[in-house]
């Protein structure tokens, strides 16, 4: 019986790495013929603690860390990944193809930022697949933006600061330019994104971390297009969370245990989410005024390419007396065990940056979202959740702050924040009911016979059918 080895190459972002490892775990669990080698390209300041969670032995999954690269992360799209090609080739030759009695190399599964590794797969004569960590609608947007640029000579970056609404094939409604990601509106960054998307068109298939029931309009639109075969396989979630910081986690869960069901609003903005002191004061004011119980994950603002850290002294950045006035009502923390928090019955709402992994986690646990995007494709996700799917309320959908914008973020006022939290926690029962229904569907999608279960089965069949004799 033919056994097969897949090589996974994630990018260094925590959300990318975690999601790719979860699909790797599911693949080897589904088919005993498969084994996987994960090549981790480390970057300075991005080698997160989460990496350690996955460097132990997993069943038929091995991890190989390539040397840390010292280039500027701003050049990640091009020079860093390009410079790793020879190391990837050496690692595969040493650990996969040259060892006796090893499974046959069956293909590469690549993160969206690692598409230049298609060239290495071609050198080995094996297929390439993309694992797309965001949603199907955003994948369709990327294809459409590249089409507009290459075929119609209409760069998407021309829409910056315009009032244009863009018709995207994977969205049922036109999307205003202000909700497009900062990277595609930046003439320097978008060139790299066009090149990535061109390479998407050359692969054997694209796995997407979504499920058909969530994004049926987008999945159907992509399935009818001329792109490679699409495999919606999500939601891929690390429900075990981070094995580190168990003491902090226990303290947070103990506090939640004392709160009534669905009474707490959770504020958390992802591994890179942080604000300046002026914005923190507006958030604090809103939390006092709205009088809802809250759990607030507060991180220290650093250089945009350095993962934020916890504050040593919260009183240095919060309004005077805030912690005393909110004793018993709220809790301010640093790092948050997000999965454990969202899965706790005390949580009634989630003020989120709308990262795709966080979105899927929130839907999995049936927790409605109030949108506050920051960077990457988060503005697009916020638009989709509020306007397309009716699964979230808005605090802001066009807020921008982060890796690919030099614009100074506007201040979101306490009144705007309070209004969004009250809508989330008090008023919109229709959204809450839809989120609960989507929670059930997300779980069914992964069960035997579910849409994602069947889609992953089709992917495995394609991999095994394409093994060279």
From TrEMBL:
One of its GO terms (molecular function) is UDP-glucosyltransferase activity. Its EC number is 2.4.1.-. It comes from the Eukaryota. Keywords: Glycosyltransferase, Transferase. CDD domains: GT1_Gtf-like. It is an enzyme of class 2 (transferase). Belongs to the UDP-glycosyltransferase family. PANTHER family: GLYCOSYLTRANSFERASE. This is Glycosyltransferase.
């Amino acid at each position: 019986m033919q056994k097969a080895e897949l090589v996974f190459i994630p990018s260094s972002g925590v959300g990318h790495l975690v999601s790719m490892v979860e699909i790797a775990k599911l693949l080897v669990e589904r088919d005993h013929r498969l084994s996987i080698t994960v090549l981790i390209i480390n970057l300075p300041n991005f080698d997160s603690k989460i990496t350690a969670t996955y460097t132990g032995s997993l069943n038929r999954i091995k991890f190989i860390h390539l040397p840390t690269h010292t280039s500027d992360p701003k050049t990640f799209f091009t020079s860093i990944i390009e410079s790793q090609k020879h190391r990837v080739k050496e690692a595969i030759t040493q650990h996969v193809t040259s060892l006796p009695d090893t499974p046959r190399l069956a293909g590469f599964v690549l993160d969206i930022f690692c598409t230049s590794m298609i060239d290495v797969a071609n050198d080995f004569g094996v297929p390439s697949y993309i694992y797309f960590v965001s949603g199907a609608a955003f994948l369709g947007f990327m294809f459409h933006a590249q089409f507009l640029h290459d075929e119609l000579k209409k760069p998407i970056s021309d829409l910056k600061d315009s009032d244009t609404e863009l018709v995207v094939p994977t969205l049922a409604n036109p999307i205003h330019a202000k909700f497009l990601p900062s990277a595609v509106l930046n003439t320097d960054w978008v060139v790299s994104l066009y090149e990535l998307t061109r390479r998407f068109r050359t692969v054997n298939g694209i796995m997407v971390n979504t499920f058909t029931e969530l994004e049926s309009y987008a999945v159907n639109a992509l399935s009818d297009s001329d792109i490679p075969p699409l495999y919606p396989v999500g939601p891929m979630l690390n429900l075990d969370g981070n094995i580190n910081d168990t003491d902090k986690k226990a303290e947070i869960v103990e506090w939640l245990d004392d709160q009534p069901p669905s009474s707490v609003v959770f504020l958390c903005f992802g591994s890179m989410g942080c604000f300046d002191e002026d914005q923190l004061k507006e958030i604090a004011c809103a939390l006092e005024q709205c009088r809802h119980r809250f759990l607030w994950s507060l991180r220290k603002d650093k250089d945009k390419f350095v993962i934020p850290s916890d504050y040593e002294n919260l009183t240095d950045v919060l309004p005077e007396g805030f912690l005393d006035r909110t004793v018993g009502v709220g809790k301010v923390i640093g790092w948050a065990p997000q999965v454990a928090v969202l899965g706790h019955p005390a949580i009634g709402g989630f003020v989120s940056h709308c990262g795709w992994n966080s979105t899927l986690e929130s839907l999995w646990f049936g927790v409605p979202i109030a949108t506050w995007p920051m960077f990457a494709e988060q503005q697009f996700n916020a638009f989709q959740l509020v306007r397309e799917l009716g699964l979230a309320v808005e605090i802001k959908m066009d807020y921008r702050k982060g890796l690919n914008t030099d614009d100074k973020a506007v201040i979101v006022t306490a009144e705007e924040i309070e209004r969004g939290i009250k809508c989330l926690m008090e008023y919109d029962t229709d959204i809450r009911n839809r989120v609960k229904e989507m929670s059930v569907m997300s779980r069914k999608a992964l069960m035997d016979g579910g849409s994602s279960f069947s889609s992953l089965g089709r992917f495995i069949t394609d991999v095994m059918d394409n093994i060279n004799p």
